[in-house]
Amino acid sequence: MRWKRFVASVLYALNGIRLAVCHERNMRIHLVATVAVIVAAAMFRISKMEWLVLLLTIGAVMSLEIVNSAIERAVDLVTDEYRPLAKEAKDLAAGAVLVFAFISVIIGLSIFLPYLYVFFKNSLHFHK
Ligand SMILES: Nc1ncnc2c1ncn2[C@@H]1O[C@H](COP(=O)(O)OP(=O)(O)OP(=O)(O)O)[C@@H](O)[C@H]1O
Fold first, then answer.
1. What secondary structure, in 3-state letters, does 19-74 show?
2. Is 4 among the annotated ligand-binding positions?
3. Ligand 1 in contact with 28 (CB < 6 A)?
4. Ligand 1: which atom is nearest the Cα of residue 75?
5. What are the positions of the active site (predicted)?
6. Which of 30, 83, 87, 97 should be mutated for ligand 1, with most atoms under 8 A from CB?
7. pLDDT score of 125
8. Residue 89: count of CB within 10 angstroms of its CB
9. Is 81 marked active-site?
10. Is 101 helix (H, G, I), strand (E, B) or coil?
11. What is the pTM (predicted TM-score) of this model?
């Protein structure tokens, strides 16, 4: 049945997320950073548009990390010997994650720096 195949494919995808969280150190780092960013966003009451940009960024970083892990496994499946093409495939995939991680830092700073500025300015006024 069609819906059974759909449910099975969702379960396989969830297993992929579980694998990434359980076996990939970088994925766990992303998760911790995500929790910190969501707590900060809720504290500062960022705007709806900022939430959307933030969620898009978080989703993109995590998705890229999962694809990177998939490429690493596919390469390891093909060879466990040193191969220049294997190195290129893994380095390219890691490069894709790094590009977006760098962009996400810029996005995070652009969203949070103005709030941090106001927060510290107000707390300085409060202590005067
Ligand atoms: N079969 C291979 N042939 C050539 N170079 C490889 C091969 N496997 C890995 N490498 C090189 O070693 C690096 C580290 O590979 P590894 O498989 O440990 O993944 P990783 O980048 O450390 O990922 P993670 O930290 O998420 O496990 C790769 O980025 C690549 O440059």
1. HHHHHCHHHHHHHHHHHHHHHHHHHHCCCHHHHHHHHHHHHHHHHHHHHHHHHHHH
2. no
3. no
4. 1
5. 65 (proton acceptor)
6. 87
7. 76
8. 16
9. no
10. helix
11. 0.90
Q: Is pLDDT above 90 for 1? A: no
* Total domain count, the chain: 1
User: What's the mean per-residue pLDDT of the chain?
Assistant: 96
Residue 72 domain boundaries: 2-127
Q: By C-alpha distance, which of 123, 110, 125 is closest to 47?
A: 110
CA pair distance 106, 110, nearest whole angstrom = 6
What ipTM was predicted for this assembly?
0.90
CATH of the domain at 37: 1.10.287.3610
| Segment 16-72, tens digit of pLDDT | 999 999 999 999 999 999 999 999 999 999 999 999 999 999 999 999 999 999 999
